[in-house]
Structures are given as C-alpha cells and as structure tokens.
Request: fold
Amino acid sequence: MNDHASSTERLQDVQARIAEAARAANRATGDITLIAVSKTFPARAIAPVLAAGQRHFGENRVQEAREKWPALKEEYPDAIVHLIGPLQTNKVKHAVQLFDVIHTVDRDKLAGELAKEMNRQGRHLPVFVQVNTGEEPQKAGVAPGEADAFIERCRNEHGLNVVGLMCIPPVNEEPSLHFALLRKIATRHDLKQLSMGMSHDFETAIEFGATHVRVGSAIFGPRTPPPSRT
Ligand SMILES: *Cc1c(COP(=O)(O)O)cnc(C)c1O
Reply:
C-alpha cells in the first residue's frame, strides 16, 4: 500500500492480509480481532475508519483517549476501546470508566487498584497480563519467570477476569521467539487470548496464534512523535 492510500483502503488491505495469514495458518479469520491503534490520531482521522465498520480500537494514553473517545462512542456505542499502553495507578478510575479491555496489567499494585475500581464501578473488564518477553529494562510487563505466579495472583487474589496475555517483542529481535514464548505461558494457564503482532509483524503473530493484533501505522499512516510525557 502506498502512502497516498486512504485509511479505509489501508484498513481493507490489512483485513485481507489477516485473512490470508489465517488461511495459511489453518485458522478461522473470525478468531482474530483487528485492533486499529489510533493513538496520536485525532477523532476526525478515526471517524472514517469507524464508518467503514471497524469497531476495535487501541489507545495507549488515558488522557488522550478521554479527549477523543466519549464523543466517538456516542456516535458508535458499539465501539470497543482497548488500553494498550502502560497504566499508572492514579489513572485507574478514568481507565475503567472509558476503556472496554485493558491489555497492560503487569504488577500487583495495579492489579489490586483495577480490581477495587471495577468493583466500585460495577464494570468488570476483561484484562490481559503484559509479559516483558524480551526482559527489556525500559519496557513494561511482568518478567517471564514471574508470569506464572503473577497470573495466578491476578485471578485468585485480585479476582481479575484475565482473558489472555500481551507482549511487545524487542524491536531488533526475531518476533516469533517472543510470540512462541507468550503462547507457551498462556497454554499453561489455559488462557485462550493472545494480544501480539503490530504493523510489521502481525502475520507472523497470527502464525503463532495471535487472537488480537494491534495495528496502527499500517492503517492510519505514519505517526508524528507524541509530545513528551509528563
Ligand atoms: C503503537 C502500538 C501499536 C501499533 O504499532 P504500529 O507499529 O503502528 O502498528 C501496537 N501495540 C502497542 C502496545 C503500541 O503502543
């Protein structure tokens, strides 16, 4: 797809590539959810993609999502917004109000606060546990060696509805090793959902069992760098 294609043309292209990757892996296309990652893009860029029928979207910052999504959801009440970025405990209340799925549970303090807030709001969202499969110090996620115990605590102590695991492989490594590791940990816990694969590697992720691929730039085009975090 060239840079002049529209977001809806690129969406169709990504959908076709997902279907092809599913076929190649002997999987049903319907078992794979495309999350269109709309971070940094304004509501006017998201609207045509919603109008084209896309319903799952990903955002990585609570504040940015709060500025865009309440109005979009009014127009499209069946839109499902996934939080795919790190969550600070002081933003848990707004996150539970706004998001429908949380992909980034990675520590007990956060798990506890999420559980408490979900009870308070009566909104029991499905969550993914993020695993730092590359053990990168700067990256969020529970270390692979701690994942088993953490998943159990999320379920049994915090009472969260853990539906699957999520990872972001290191940029310069073969992603399939990370996808395979994530799948192996998920299987041990009978977790059916795997959030893995981005614009450059979603086909490989599908080969390795991804149920949720998070695709941003291949749909919305290149992102300008976000303003620095405070
Ligand atoms: C930005 C982002 C994506 C999408 O990245 P692209 O390379 O634009 O597809 C996927 N997952 C996470 C966690 C992200 O932050």
Summary: The CA atoms of residues 180 and 208 lie 6 Å apart. The first helix runs from residue 7 to 24.
